[in-house]
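Hi L.,

You mentioned the student needs an example of a multi-chain input paired with its predicted structure. This one should do, with 520 residues in total across all chains.
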Amino acid sequence: MLIERLAKMYVQWGAPKQSIESDRRRNRQIQAVREFLEIIQKTGENRKELFEVSQQSKRKATKLSYLLLASDTEPAAVRDSFLRSGLLFKGQQNNKPELLMWLAGTEACARGIHPYIVFLIMSAYSGLEAANSEFLWLRERSKLQNAKLTEYIVPGDLTDNIEEALSEPLRFKRTIRIAGMPLAASAFAGCSLYYIEQILALVGPIGSFILTEMIAAARKRLISDEICTAQQAFLDLYSRQESESSTLDKGLMTGMEAFEESSQPDPDLIRTTTDIIMSAEAKILKATLSSMSDNEIASLLRCIEPIAHERLLSLISQGRQRRILTAIQHTDNVTGEKMLRDAQLFAQKLLSSYAPRNLRPGETLKIPELLRNLISSLLGRE
Amino acid sequence: MIYWNADLAAKIACSSEDMKILPSYIDYLVDSAKKIAQGVMLPDSEQLSSEKDDFFRYGLLLVSEGLSGEILEEILAVLLYVSKVEGIEFLKQCVAAEAILSIANGEDEEIMIRKLLPYCGIDAALDTVAQRKSEHAD
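Structure written out for the whole complex:
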């Protein structure tokens, strides 16, 4: 809890020591943080270079920070080092915010937090006004950064559903925040550049740059299976967020339900749809399912017999299976008309999966006769 | 474990007269959160330029960059720690910080209200919750 964290700061470090702050002093502090950001970004994992920087630093706290980072100090040991150095005092003695700032920055770097976020944490110690102006400075800097990603796709739950997920940008943005940038970046590492660009446009320039760098790092660090797991986890979080449109739809539905007639499922419709699924080629069926949303598949499952359930579910990943089953649980009773529409939508998507990209006019689709008749019969129903 | 510090208590203390403005401030924060959740108001810098509450505006800027959870809480706690305002103005900053965290975490209106109302004092919070319940029942 926020207030608890604040109280802890007061208990550990006392009230911030007020000193007469001249503009010159404040500017010097801000300049030192900007320099810190640049050095951390430039040196990266190069410990030797960080050590050299520490030797050139004149101020004690800055020198200690660089030295601790150069020697790869564990995050938990950073605080002890600051206390032992005599720069900070425990037990409600008033400490200078500037020194606490260097401690927080060093700890955050040691925890592997992105330098831009470290910068935002550190600049907060200069107060709201300075934090705001430093935020604007960082935003401009982010726009000038030239971080480029190459095309790299890892098929998985998110790559299958990304288009549908991005159709609700507010929900997607919320999921990024709830997942946190490291998980989100690991999940996006397997997405195509086309979609990554759309995702990056959902956050501001700072967030966009951080995500780009994290995606690049995740691609180097993670194997395909790990990216798949991250995709599944991200999509699970996305599914748990209440859909903006479904909330709206629910409101509308309550009024509509009174007028809608609930009809019994048509056995003939169920038999035809089941036969289509059992006759279609597995490869084509898989491609069709990839083009359908979880809700569409959940609706389709209501129009088929159990034997076809098994076939469909065997063609999709376990993570997606779980989401579809959840979607079924959240669906209210459907009418016969809706079932027919759902089955026809599936038949249309199946047809388009059969159509090759370079189909010439007049050329017929290579669909087995039996399947062709079943699809025609389904699409012809009213 | 309850952490206690006299300096913080002195900084946050305000009169019951001052506290009277808090419920309407909470309404304003909840309303802004609702607009953000519905996409009516986007927490980006251009739309936020009209926001007069500097603390709330800065928090929303951080949210617009995708910040949330521990990191966002750390930044907001630091801003409160070094904040030079006192009394009701400081209390308002604390409430705004909680609201920003709620918005970042995608919490719904009910949860947000339950987190913010205790800042008005336990009696006022209970009264407001009871009042809201009876309004919903009607």
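You could point out the following to them. The longest helix of chain A spans residues 23-43. Chain A has a mean pLDDT of 84.

Best wishes,
N.
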